[in-house]
Amino acid sequence: MEFALLSILALVVVASVVAAKYNDVGGNPYPFSRKESVFSTVEASFLTLLERAVGDKFKIVSRVKLIDLIECKPGLSKKARRAAITKAKNKQLDYVLVDKETLTIVAAVDLVNNSNKGGHKAQRDWFVNGALESANIPHIRMKVKAGYKASEVRNAILFKLGKTPQPPKKLRTRVEKPAVMSPSQAKAHSTSLAEI
Fold first, then answer.
1. C-alpha distances in angstroms, 98 versus 23, 29, 137?
2. Whole-model pTM?
């Protein structure tokens, strides 16, 4: 009985020493502290603007993993499914618009910073675009800039979703198309992958 207790005590001591070796110098397995905010200044400002612009129509969810919006189509091989899921797991969208009543996905919104400052996407991620287009989820890209008005953002988003007949007056829109597309793909592409 004493031998068993000594053996257990020895195992606990060895496990503690090994665990301490892999932890921070202080032996704390949780070397974390709280951040000041969940959002950067730009993200917080744009979220507030987005809520004023379309918050009456949509719920706005931020920092959503791409894999939470899409799933693999049936009939894929295990290898192809695993590769697609692995790529999608590493992608994130800034905001997702969700229907208030049905909670269905309406669109994905990403902030774009062409100056490549502030941590926002500067270049288009073709995998994200293709995945969202394949799943019929509009991808709205909005340039980071000061001076947006809620009404401009609302009009731009509704226009991209096909819910308003006129384009926004003050926002310039640009639609990028791949080199080769069928007419039906071009139409879907111009609606879903527009950059605001």
1. 41, 38, 11
2. 0.67
Q: Decide if 60 is inside a domain.
A: yes
Residue 130's closest CA among 95, 172, 87, 161?
87
> Cα–chain-centroid distance for residue 176?
20
Tell me whether residue 183 is in a domain: yes
pLDDT tens figures, 41-54: 888 999 999 999 99
**Count of structural domains, the chain:** 1
Q: Is residue 92 part of a domain?
A: yes
Q: Which value, in Å, is the radius of gyration of the alpha carbons in the chain?
A: 24
Residue in 61, 51, 62, 63 with CA at minimum distance from that of residue 154: 51
User: Among residues 91, 77, 74, which one has the least CA distance to residue 137?
Assistant: 91
Question: 143 exposed, middle or buried (CB, 10 Å; 0-12, 13-18, 19+)?
Answer: middle
Per-residue pLDDT tens digits for 63-83: 999 999 999 999 999 999 999
Strands annotated E in the chain: 58-65, 92-99, 105-112, 139-143, 174-175, 194-195
- CB atoms closer than 10 angstroms to residue 147: 6
